[in-house]
From TrEMBL:
Record's protein name: Glycosyl transferase, family 2
Keywords (A to Z) from UniProt: Transferase
GO function term, MF aspect, one: transferase activity
Short name of any one Pfam family annotated for the protein: Glycos_transf_2
Signal peptide region: none
Tree of life domain: Archaea
Span of domain Glycosyltransferase 2-like: 5-157
């Protein structure tokens, strides 16, 4: 099946090259450079197709750009993986397998299905717990790792999404809510997650969590009407 691997990136010059090299073994790679100010674009374009935003729009817009490209190019499977090296591209086949076998429409890589969650920094554990509980409450789902950015989508998923989600990192919760509401089959597989990757350009985790929680409350408000 024709597979596209989308890597949204913002100032990831330290890791983008190796991520592309590892990911391209499993499909075509598309990097969405969200107006990086470092050498992310220059490094990425040497070994992958790159779409560069002229202004920083956020992860939600980066994924929307990638999904639209995938639909226009008739891909069967779209894998999303973060650019910072937290996720291992060698696990891409594990996420794609349920889609190829028609066992799921969306596959989410979960750090909670193995021992990886024991390595989560203490300051993040509570935040992830709250975001998981809130997302599952609004979506009426039971996903162990709703905030995972390592996912594989079928073409059916993309066709059933209006691609009208927020610009920030709340996109994972929003997509889960939308696709759950449309009764698409969602499956989780265990993945490993690293927490020793460079964080030079990372958003403050507290501000990030509050932003995601705000989007979840907005979804709850829409659901109420």
């Amino acid at each position: 099946m024709k597979t596209l691997i989308i890597i949204p990136a913002y100032n990831e010059e330290l890791t983008i090259g190796s991520m592309i090299l590892l990911a391209k073994e499993y499909g075509d790679v598309l990097v969405i450079d969200d107006c990086s100010t470092d050498k992310t674009f220059e490094i990425a374009e040497k070994s992958a197709k790159v779409i560069k935003h002229t202004i920083n729009k956020g992860k939600g817009h980066a994924l929307k750009t990638g999904f639209e490209y995938a639909l226009n190019s008739n891909y069967d499977i779209v894998v999303c993986i973060d650019a910072d090296g937290q996720h291992d591209p060698k696990e891409i086949p594990k996420l794609c397998s349920p889609l190829k076998n028609k066992e799921a429409d969306l596959v989410i890589g979960s750090r909670y299905l193995n021992k990886t969650h024991r390595k989560i920094p203490a300051y993040r554990k509570l935040g992830l717990y709250i975001l998981n509980k809130s997302t599952n409450l609004v979506s009426k789902s039971n996903i162990s790792d709703s905030q995972s950015g390592f996912r594989a989508y079928s073409k059916k998923c993309l066709l059933n999404s209006d691609l009208n989600f927020s610009s920030g990192y709340g996109v994972e919760s929003e997509l889960l809510h939308e696709l759950s509401k449309k009764k698409l089959h969602i499956k989780e597989v265990d993945i490993n997650v690293r927490y020793d990757v460079p964080h030079k350009h990372k958003k403050n985790p507290v501000l990030h969590g509050l932003g995601v929680l705000y989007n979840i409350f907005l979804m709850f408000g829409k659901k109420a009407y």
